[in-house]
Design brief:
Blueprint: H1 6-11, H2 14-17, E1 18-23, E2 26-31, H3 32-43, H4 53-69, E3 72-78, H5 87-101, H6 119-129, E4 133-136, H7 142-152, E5 156-158, E6 170-172, E7 177-182, E8 194-201, H8 203-208, H9 219-226, H10 233-244, H11 252-263, H12 269-277, H13 282-300, H14 306-317, H15 322-330
Parallel strand pairs: 2-3, 2-5, 3-4, 5-6
Antiparallel strand pairs: 1-8, 7-8
Helix pairs in contact: 3-4, 4-6, 7-14, 9-13, 12-13
């Protein structure tokens, strides 16, 4: 899922691109499908026989209990149906999975984690039993998760590299240390005695390291051109070759630097899109334009989706404890800070 190799690039400089944080007394939006897979990975030492549901259930229960100890109220959002525009990508991933399955060795197994088909159903049952708030998107949950975290001014927990390029406070699950730490109780406003440590992605520092991104509204176009699940890899590679003057494929950091430099020439993502479309064959141009415009509308729209409106209404009507009700009504939390600055070029005027 997400943009290939972006996780690896960010993890090369963790001290630069991440800010350490302590999580407690807050709401948190959770990418349910992604986190359930990672919990399954951590719960099972050998997944080759599939269906280690009991161990997974215990791991999920422990995860939510730790959040409860820290007075962290999770809002879990699950994927819905697949989008027609993404079927080519999904088909390719399923073919890769079949090829990997053919190489299974049941003795001394080392390799990929095989996710069982009923994992989400077990995850739902666990959340129902523990009274965890969750809901399901009509389609993929990425946009709804981002909008929910923005509306509630709270972090988003996932392990999808797409969120690196969204305007949201993103905490990769792999940076979360689930060991409880006792808090200093000098501040009497704290409800929890414990916290967990994690790392918040610093998007401003990341982009400034590659030349700067002038405006947040460029993020969806940036993600599309960099190779998200909805873009055409071959067409984007040809575009980068034209910008760089190189025939060979660029490394990811070269692409990011090239895009940052190119986008500084435009006042809006729509104008930049039109320049990109000049490089696209005429017969594909309208389809690519529609795809980019849809990405821009989804990510840059100030309107909340129906699901986000449902989440806000549901939380405001629930009795979930005095501290969390305070966060929902006021849309603030004791430990959480606003997103880390605005996008800008550190060298610009």
């Amino acid at each position: 899922m997400g943009i290939p190799k972006l996780f690896g690039l960010v993890d090369k400089e963790p001290a630069l691109f991440y800010k350490p944080i302590k999580l407690h007394d807050t709401l948190i939006v959770i990418d349910g499908n992604c986190i359930s897979c990672w919990l399954y990975r951590t719960s099972c030492s050998n997944t080759v026989f599939n269906g280690e549901y009991s161990e997974f259930e215990k791991c999920a229960q422990k995860f939510f209990c730790i959040l409860k100890e820290c007075n962290i109220f999770p809002i879990v959002i699950l994927d819905g149906a697949h989008e027609a525009r993404k079927l080519k990508t999904i088909k390719g991933r399923l073919c890769d999975k079949i090829l990997r399955n053919q190489k299974i060795k049941t003795i001394d197994f080392r390799g990929d984690v095989f996710i069982p088909i009923h994992l989400i159903e077990v995850f739902k049952t666990t959340m129902i039993d523990m009274e965890i708030f969750y809901c399901q998107s009509f389609l993929e949950a990425d946009v709804d998760a981002t909008k929910a975290a923005q509306s509630l001014n709270c972090p988003l927990l996932s392990c999808d590299s797409d969120f690196y390029l969204d305007d949201v406070d993103y905490i990769p699950f792999t940076t979360l240390d689930l060991q409880l730490l006792r808090l200093d109780q000098e501040n009497g406003s704290l409800q929890s005695q414990y916290c967990v440590q994690g790392k918040l992605f610093d998007r401003t520092t990341f982009f400034n390291n590659y030349g700067g991104l002038a405006r947040l509204e460029f993020l969806p176009l940036f993600s599309f051109l960099l190779g998200n699940d909805y873009s055409e890899t071959e067409l984007c590679e040809a575009f980068f070759s034209r910008l760089s003057g190189q025939k060979s494929s660029l490394k990811l950091e070269q692409k990011i630097r090239t895009l940052c430099r190119w986008l500084h020439n435009f006042q809006s993502p729509e104008i930049a899109m039109n320049d990109f479309l000049k490089e696209i064959p005429q017969k594909l141009r309208q389809r690519m334009k529609n795809e980019i415009l849809r990405c821009l509308e989804e990510k840059n729209s100030k309107l909340s989706s129906y699901l986000v409106q449902y989440i806000l209404q549901s939380l405001n009507s629930m009795e979930i404890g005095q501290s969390c009700t305070l966060f929902i009504c006021a849309r603030l939390c004791h430990c959480w800070k606003p997103r880390l600055g605005n996008m800008h070029n550190s060298n610009s005027q």
